[in-house]
Amino acid sequence: MMYDQIAHYYDLTHASLTEDIPFVLVLARQANGPVLELGCGSGRLLLPLAQAGMTVMGLDNSAAMLARAQTRLAPEPEIVQNRVTLREGDMTGFAVDGRFPLILISYNTFMHLDNNQALACLKQARRHLLAGGQLFIDLANPFTIADTPEDHLLSLENVLTDPATGDIILHLAANRLDTAGQTLHITWVYDRSPGAHSSPMGGPVHRTIAQATYHYRYPHQMELLLQEAGFNHLTFLGAYDHSPFHEQSPRLLLLSKTNHP
Fold first, then answer.
1. Which terminus of the chain is more solvent-facing, meaning fewer CB atoms within 10 Å of its CB: N or C?
2. Class of domain 145-215
3. What are phi and psi of 235, to 5 degrees?
4. Which residues, including other chains, have CB under 8 Å from residue 107's CB and lie 6 or more apart?
Protein backbone atom coordinates (compact mmCIF):
# COMPACT_ATOMS: atom_id res chain seq x y z
CA MET A 1 0.00 0.00 0.00
CA MET A 2 1.39 3.34 -1.12
CA TYR A 3 0.75 5.27 2.10
CA ASP A 4 2.33 2.54 4.20
CA GLN A 5 5.48 3.12 2.11
CA ILE A 6 5.57 6.87 2.60
CA ALA A 7 3.92 7.27 6.01
CA HIS A 8 7.22 8.38 7.55
CA TYR A 9 7.53 11.18 4.98
CA TYR A 10 3.90 12.27 4.76
CA ASP A 11 3.90 14.68 7.70
CA LEU A 12 7.21 16.21 6.62
CA THR A 13 5.98 16.91 3.09
CA HIS A 14 2.58 18.21 4.28
CA ALA A 15 3.75 20.29 7.24
CA SER A 16 2.88 23.54 5.44
CA LEU A 17 -0.60 22.36 4.42
CA THR A 18 -2.78 24.24 6.90
CA GLU A 19 -4.90 26.59 4.79
CA ASP A 20 -7.92 24.26 4.80
CA ILE A 21 -8.06 23.93 8.61
CA PRO A 22 -10.02 27.16 9.41
CA PHE A 23 -12.57 26.28 6.70
CA VAL A 24 -13.06 22.77 8.10
CA LEU A 25 -13.33 24.05 11.67
CA VAL A 26 -16.18 26.37 10.65
CA LEU A 27 -18.00 23.48 8.96
CA ALA A 28 -17.58 21.35 12.07
CA ARG A 29 -18.87 24.07 14.39
CA GLN A 30 -21.91 24.61 12.17
CA ALA A 31 -22.60 20.86 12.12
CA ASN A 32 -22.80 20.88 15.92
CA GLY A 33 -22.16 17.16 16.26
CA PRO A 34 -19.63 14.39 15.67
CA VAL A 35 -17.55 14.50 12.49
CA LEU A 36 -16.44 11.57 10.33
CA GLU A 37 -13.32 11.97 8.19
CA LEU A 38 -12.80 9.40 5.44
CA GLY A 39 -9.15 8.89 4.55
CA CYS A 40 -7.96 10.67 7.69
CA GLY A 41 -4.32 9.65 7.20
CA SER A 42 -2.00 10.71 9.99
CA GLY A 43 -4.56 12.98 11.62
CA ARG A 44 -3.63 16.31 10.03
CA LEU A 45 -7.25 17.49 10.44
CA LEU A 46 -8.29 15.24 13.33
CA LEU A 47 -5.98 16.94 15.82
CA PRO A 48 -7.11 20.57 15.28
CA LEU A 49 -10.74 19.42 15.28
CA ALA A 50 -10.29 17.63 18.60
CA GLN A 51 -8.34 20.55 20.06
CA ALA A 52 -11.27 22.80 19.13
CA GLY A 53 -13.64 20.60 21.12
CA MET A 54 -15.08 18.46 18.32
CA THR A 55 -15.80 14.75 18.58
CA VAL A 56 -14.34 13.14 15.47
CA MET A 57 -13.89 9.68 13.99
CA GLY A 58 -11.12 9.04 11.47
CA LEU A 59 -11.21 6.14 9.00
CA ASP A 60 -8.22 5.08 6.91
CA ASN A 61 -7.04 1.89 5.20
CA SER A 62 -3.36 2.43 6.08
CA ALA A 63 -2.32 1.01 9.44
CA ALA A 64 0.95 2.94 9.23
CA MET A 65 -0.84 6.26 8.79
CA LEU A 66 -3.23 5.51 11.64
CA ALA A 67 -0.24 4.67 13.85
CA ARG A 68 1.18 8.10 13.06
CA ALA A 69 -2.18 9.66 13.92
CA GLN A 70 -2.06 7.91 17.28
CA THR A 71 1.47 9.20 17.83
CA ARG A 72 0.32 12.72 16.93
CA LEU A 73 -2.46 12.50 19.52
CA ALA A 74 -0.34 10.97 22.28
CA PRO A 75 1.07 14.24 23.73
CA GLU A 76 -2.39 15.82 23.94
CA PRO A 77 -4.40 16.04 27.18
CA GLU A 78 -6.64 13.06 27.82
CA ILE A 79 -9.77 15.12 27.17
CA VAL A 80 -8.54 15.85 23.62
CA GLN A 81 -7.48 12.25 22.98
CA ASN A 82 -10.89 11.01 24.11
CA ARG A 83 -12.60 13.06 21.41
CA VAL A 84 -10.89 11.06 18.64
CA THR A 85 -11.74 7.54 17.48
CA LEU A 86 -9.56 5.87 14.85
CA ARG A 87 -10.83 3.06 12.63
CA GLU A 88 -8.97 1.02 10.02
CA GLY A 89 -11.16 0.43 6.99
CA ASP A 90 -11.83 1.05 3.31
CA MET A 91 -13.77 4.21 2.53
CA THR A 92 -15.55 2.39 -0.33
CA GLY A 93 -17.06 -0.24 1.97
CA PHE A 94 -17.09 0.77 5.62
CA ALA A 95 -19.63 0.54 8.42
CA VAL A 96 -19.26 2.47 11.68
CA ASP A 97 -21.69 3.13 14.49
CA GLY A 98 -24.03 6.07 14.26
CA ARG A 99 -24.74 8.80 11.76
CA PHE A 100 -22.95 12.10 11.41
CA PRO A 101 -23.99 15.67 10.61
CA LEU A 102 -20.70 16.19 8.74
CA ILE A 103 -18.48 13.87 6.71
CA LEU A 104 -15.15 15.08 5.36
CA ILE A 105 -13.08 13.77 2.46
CA SER A 106 -10.17 16.15 2.68
CA TYR A 107 -7.38 17.39 0.46
CA ASN A 108 -7.29 15.28 -2.77
CA THR A 109 -8.20 12.03 -0.94
CA PHE A 110 -11.24 11.36 -3.13
CA MET A 111 -9.01 11.49 -6.21
CA HIS A 112 -7.47 8.11 -5.31
CA LEU A 113 -10.77 6.46 -6.30
CA ASP A 114 -11.81 5.34 -9.77
CA ASN A 115 -15.42 5.87 -10.81
CA ASN A 116 -16.77 2.61 -9.35
CA GLN A 117 -14.91 3.18 -6.09
CA ALA A 118 -15.99 6.83 -5.99
CA LEU A 119 -19.67 5.94 -6.34
CA ALA A 120 -19.37 3.22 -3.67
CA CYS A 121 -17.70 5.71 -1.32
CA LEU A 122 -20.41 8.32 -1.86
CA LYS A 123 -23.17 5.78 -1.24
CA GLN A 124 -21.49 4.70 2.00
CA ALA A 125 -21.10 8.33 3.05
CA ARG A 126 -24.80 8.95 2.39
CA ARG A 127 -25.74 5.99 4.58
CA HIS A 128 -23.73 7.47 7.44
CA LEU A 129 -25.07 11.03 7.19
CA LEU A 130 -27.86 12.36 9.33
CA ALA A 131 -30.87 13.77 7.49
CA GLY A 132 -29.80 17.23 6.40
CA GLY A 133 -26.18 16.32 7.02
CA GLN A 134 -23.38 17.67 4.85
CA LEU A 135 -20.59 16.05 2.84
CA PHE A 136 -17.45 18.05 2.10
CA ILE A 137 -15.03 16.96 -0.64
CA ASP A 138 -11.80 18.89 -1.28
CA LEU A 139 -10.28 18.38 -4.74
CA ALA A 140 -7.58 19.83 -6.93
CA ASN A 141 -8.88 22.00 -9.75
CA PRO A 142 -9.29 19.57 -12.69
CA PHE A 143 -8.53 22.28 -15.24
CA THR A 144 -5.16 22.85 -13.55
CA ILE A 145 -4.39 19.12 -13.57
CA ALA A 146 -5.28 18.89 -17.26
CA ASP A 147 -2.53 21.46 -17.94
CA THR A 148 0.16 19.34 -16.25
CA PRO A 149 3.31 19.29 -18.45
CA GLU A 150 3.93 15.88 -20.03
CA ASP A 151 7.71 15.84 -19.54
CA HIS A 152 7.82 12.66 -17.38
CA LEU A 153 11.00 14.01 -15.78
CA LEU A 154 11.86 13.85 -12.09
CA SER A 155 11.84 17.28 -10.50
CA LEU A 156 12.92 18.34 -7.03
CA GLU A 157 9.90 19.12 -4.84
CA ASN A 158 11.50 19.69 -1.44
CA VAL A 159 14.68 19.38 0.58
CA LEU A 160 13.60 18.33 4.06
CA THR A 161 15.26 17.65 7.39
CA ASP A 162 13.83 14.90 9.56
CA PRO A 163 13.63 16.49 13.03
CA ALA A 164 13.76 13.08 14.70
CA THR A 165 17.04 11.99 13.12
CA GLY A 166 18.58 15.02 11.43
CA ASP A 167 18.62 13.11 8.14
CA ILE A 168 18.35 15.05 4.89
CA ILE A 169 15.54 14.00 2.54
CA LEU A 170 15.37 14.94 -1.11
CA HIS A 171 11.76 14.70 -2.28
CA LEU A 172 11.38 14.31 -6.06
CA ALA A 173 8.35 13.73 -8.28
CA ALA A 174 7.48 12.87 -11.87
CA ASN A 175 4.07 13.20 -13.50
CA ARG A 176 2.40 11.40 -16.38
CA LEU A 177 -0.95 12.73 -17.56
CA ASP A 178 -3.57 10.60 -19.32
CA THR A 179 -6.14 13.09 -20.63
CA ALA A 180 -8.33 10.39 -22.21
CA GLY A 181 -8.60 8.50 -18.93
CA GLN A 182 -8.60 11.70 -16.82
CA THR A 183 -5.81 10.36 -14.63
CA LEU A 184 -2.58 11.80 -13.34
CA HIS A 185 0.09 9.21 -12.52
CA ILE A 186 2.66 10.43 -10.01
CA THR A 187 5.92 8.82 -8.99
CA TRP A 188 7.43 10.06 -5.73
CA VAL A 189 11.06 9.48 -4.83
CA TYR A 190 12.46 10.08 -1.35
CA ASP A 191 16.26 9.98 -1.01
CA ARG A 192 17.31 9.91 2.64
CA SER A 193 20.92 10.50 3.70
CA PRO A 194 22.58 11.22 7.07
CA GLY A 195 22.77 14.85 8.12
CA ALA A 196 26.14 16.55 8.57
CA HIS A 197 25.92 16.39 12.37
CA SER A 198 25.69 12.60 12.35
CA SER A 199 27.95 11.86 9.39
CA PRO A 200 30.21 14.77 8.36
CA MET A 201 31.68 12.68 5.55
CA GLY A 202 28.28 11.75 4.18
CA GLY A 203 26.75 8.31 4.13
CA PRO A 204 24.60 5.88 2.18
CA VAL A 205 21.44 7.09 0.49
CA HIS A 206 18.26 5.16 1.16
CA ARG A 207 15.71 5.52 -1.65
CA THR A 208 11.95 5.02 -1.32
CA ILE A 209 9.81 5.01 -4.46
CA ALA A 210 6.03 5.21 -4.40
CA GLN A 211 3.45 5.62 -7.14
CA ALA A 212 -0.13 6.87 -7.13
CA THR A 213 -2.90 7.47 -9.64
CA TYR A 214 -5.18 10.47 -9.21
CA HIS A 215 -8.54 10.54 -10.96
CA TYR A 216 -9.62 14.07 -11.78
CA ARG A 217 -13.23 14.96 -12.55
CA TYR A 218 -14.85 18.13 -13.82
CA PRO A 219 -17.69 19.75 -11.88
CA HIS A 220 -20.45 18.29 -14.05
CA GLN A 221 -18.97 14.81 -13.59
CA MET A 222 -18.83 15.22 -9.82
CA GLU A 223 -22.42 16.50 -9.86
CA LEU A 224 -23.59 13.38 -11.72
CA LEU A 225 -21.75 11.09 -9.29
CA LEU A 226 -23.19 12.84 -6.26
CA GLN A 227 -26.71 12.80 -7.66
CA GLU A 228 -26.43 9.09 -8.47
CA ALA A 229 -25.40 8.48 -4.86
CA GLY A 230 -28.45 10.37 -3.60
CA PHE A 231 -26.99 13.78 -2.79
CA ASN A 232 -28.53 17.12 -3.66
CA HIS A 233 -28.18 20.81 -2.79
CA LEU A 234 -24.69 20.94 -4.35
CA THR A 235 -22.43 23.94 -3.86
CA PHE A 236 -19.17 24.38 -5.79
CA LEU A 237 -16.50 26.66 -4.33
CA GLY A 238 -13.11 27.56 -5.71
CA ALA A 239 -11.18 28.38 -2.55
CA TYR A 240 -11.36 28.33 1.24
CA ASP A 241 -12.58 31.94 1.20
CA HIS A 242 -15.92 30.67 -0.19
CA SER A 243 -15.39 32.24 -3.61
CA PRO A 244 -17.32 30.56 -6.46
CA PHE A 245 -15.52 27.99 -8.58
CA HIS A 246 -14.10 28.97 -11.96
CA GLU A 247 -11.46 27.43 -14.23
CA GLN A 248 -8.60 29.36 -12.59
CA SER A 249 -9.64 28.61 -9.00
CA PRO A 250 -7.04 27.18 -6.61
CA ARG A 251 -9.31 24.27 -5.58
CA LEU A 252 -12.59 22.53 -6.37
CA LEU A 253 -14.55 22.33 -3.11
CA LEU A 254 -17.87 20.50 -2.99
CA LEU A 255 -20.53 20.82 -0.32
CA SER A 256 -23.52 18.53 -0.69
CA LYS A 257 -26.49 17.64 1.49
CA THR A 258 -29.02 14.85 1.62
CA ASN A 259 -32.59 14.91 2.81
CA HIS A 260 -32.98 11.18 3.44
CA PRO A 261 -34.59 10.11 6.72
1. C
2. mainly beta
3. -125, 130
4. 17, 20, 138
